[in-house]
Design brief:
This protein is of the alpha/beta class and 246 residues long. The chain has a single domain, classed as Metallo-beta-lactamase, Chain A. Helices cover 27% and strands 27% of the residues. The protein contains 8 helices and 13 strands. The chain has helices spanning 52-60, 78-81, 84-90, 103-106, 178-192, 196-206, 225-236, 241-244, and strands at 2-9, 12-18, 32-36, 41-44, 68-72, 95-99, 115-119, 124-128, 131-137, 147-151, 156-160, 213-216, 222-223. The strands form 2 sheets. A 7-stranded mixed beta sheet has the order 1-2-3-4-5-6-7, covered by helices on one side. Strands 8-9-10-11-12-13 form a 6-stranded mixed beta sheet, covered by helices on one side. Strand 10 and strand 11 (156-160) form a beta hairpin. The longest helix has 15 residues, at 178-192. The protein is globular. The mean pLDDT is 94. InterPro entries: Metallo-B-lactamas, ODP_dom, RibonucZ/Hydroxyglut_hydro. Residues 29-218 form the Metallo-beta-lactamase domain. This is MBL fold metallo-hydrolase. Pfam families: ODP.
Length: 246
């Protein structure tokens, strides 16, 4: 599994974990993100149950396990949170921040020790040792209860399935040629994003943020001008094609 520092300023870090060369061919590759501060850290979309041992090993190379006080699940899909039951056995004092809508479903993955913080539809904030993380609503993109994470200090938006692409594990971590990247993500967004109204609401909200990196759950990360290219492209894209084609 590859590890990359997206941001490192003193004790405040963003780390990317992904591009697992040992993953099974019929399993979608996922990106996981760890935000660390001196005493606390949060793991964003921790991954599927099949990835747990690799993720635990990767995380322990950067922090001690008691420092991992928080987890975040953007929505309920198993590829991002089915490892919860195993994290639950490792973490004695942690909180999972996830949409209120999916609590009854996410708990099926296993929660005895980890506490559940149900995020209201309008979002919220998490103070991580003085670093403020914002939970940005992204409902219906593609889940009906869905959030992204924005760090204004690092200028990073963890964008869940928005910006996701089906890429090879040997592909670069960052988008290098936007036009060549479009075929890797176009149909996914057209089919999995059901609402143009929800899409446009998200774009309007996100354009107000200062973003240097847009870090999706799958595929390459958008950096600098590539962020704006993606927003312009996504804005003109018609989504919900399964309905439109009937």
């Amino acid at each position: 599994m590859k590890t990359h520092h997206l941001y490192h300023s003193g004790t405040h870090r963003w780390l990317f974990f992904g591009r697992d060369p040992d993953k099974k061919n019929n399993i979608i590759d996922t990106n996981q993100y760890l935000i660390t501060t001196p005493k606390r850290a949060v793991l964003l979309d921790p991954g599927g149950i099949e990835l747990f041992s690799q993720m635990l090993t990767a995380v322990l190379q950067h922090i001690d396990l008691p420092q991992l006080t928080d987890l975040f699940a953007s929505h309920q899909d198993p590829d991002i949170i089915s490892s919860l039951g195993l994290w639950d056995q490792c973490l004695e004092n942690a909180t999972l921040h996830a949409p209120w809508l999916w609590e009854g479903f996410i708990r099926h993955f296993g929660m005895n020790s980890i506490k559940y913080n149900p995020l209201p539809d309008e979002g919220g904030q998490l103070d991580l040792n003085g670093i403020t993380l914002q939970f940005i609503p992204a409902h219906y993109l593609h889940s009906s209860g869905n959030f992204h994470v924005y760090d204004a200090t690092a200028k990073i938006l963890m964008s869940g399935d928005i910006g996701a692409a089906l890429d090879d594990t040997s592909a670069p971590i960052f988008v290098e040629d936007f036009e060549q990247h479009i075929p890797k993500m176009e149909y996914f967004h057209q089919r999995w994003m059901p609402s143009n109204a929800a899409k446009n609401d998200w774009i309007k909200r996100v354009r107000q943020l200062d973003i240097e990196y847009m870090a999706p759950q799958h595929g390459a990360i958008f950096k600098g001008s590539m962020v704006h290219k993606f927003l312009d492209w996504f804005e003109q894209l018609e989504v919900g094609v399964a309905i439109a084609s009937n």
